[in-house]
Design brief:
The protein has 187 residues and is an alpha+beta fold. The protein has two domains: 2-33; 43-182, no CATH class. It has helices at 12-35, 121-135, 140-144, 176-182; strands at residues 2-4, 7-9, 43-44, 51-52, 55-56, 68-75, 81-87, 93-94, 97-98, 101-107, 110-119, 148-152, 156-163, 168-175. The strands form four sheets. It has an eight-stranded mixed sheet, with helices on both faces. The radius of gyration is 25 Å and the shape is globular. It starts with a strand and ends in a 5-residue tail after the last helix.
């Protein structure tokens, strides 16, 4: 640095050092914002379903064949009744995975979600493979997250959950619009 006519001037070497320090620091800051997201980012879904097994979101229990009433789960803060139904798992196999239970959840008699329960890490991996083929590949960091991977669409959320401690998992198909009504439901 030197001064001429009362103004400070920098040597070219000093400017290069400053650029060498500042540019990588700024790049690291911007990259870190991308990694600061929660572990379950969600993948934008391709070829999204508008229901489950021919039952559209919003269908009544009577429109969904072979359901057995399980119980009322309660009401949302808005007073909307939440009910739960079961369906036989016979004949439903996805990528070699058999399910231990299928549950249909309704908000005010409108199909809001379907939960398919399974056991074992190998089954979780088989389901992840077929879901990625159908709805799009998940983010690398999310693929490694055993507990949860999510695909988000305009009408449907597909959510693959797995509990390592109990080796039990669930594959959820959820209506985006009807699930918003569940936000006020106190489990």
């Amino acid at each position: 640095m030197f001064r001429v006519d009362g103004r400070t001037h920098f040597y070219e070497e000093d400017m290069n050092i400053t650029k060498q320090l500042v540019v990588p620091l700024l790049a690291a800051c911007f990259l870190s914002f991308g990694f600061a997201s929660p572990p379950a980012w969600g993948v934008l879904m391709q070829d999204e379903p508008s229901g489950f097994r021919g039952n559209s979101w919003g269908a009544s229990p009577g429109d969904c064949p072979s359901l057995r009433f399980v119980r009322d789960l309660g009401t949302t803060q808005d007073g909307k009744l939440i009910t739960l139904y079961d369906r036989s798992t016979v004949g439903l196999i996805i990528n070699g995975v058999s399910f231990t239970r299928i549950r249909y959840r309704f908000v005010e008699n409108q199909l809001e979600s379907v939960q398919l329960s399974f056991g074992g890490r190998a089954n979780r991996d088989k389901l992840l493979q077929v879901i990625e083929e159908r709805y799009g590949r998940s983010v690398q960091g999310e693929r490694k997250n055993l507990s949860r991977v999510e695909w988000d669409g305009n009408e449907t959320i597909v959510d693959l959950d797995y509990r390592v401690d109990s080796e039990v998992g669930s594959l959820w198909f959820i209506s985006t619009s009807l699930n918003q009504q569940m936000a006020s439901f106190a489990w």
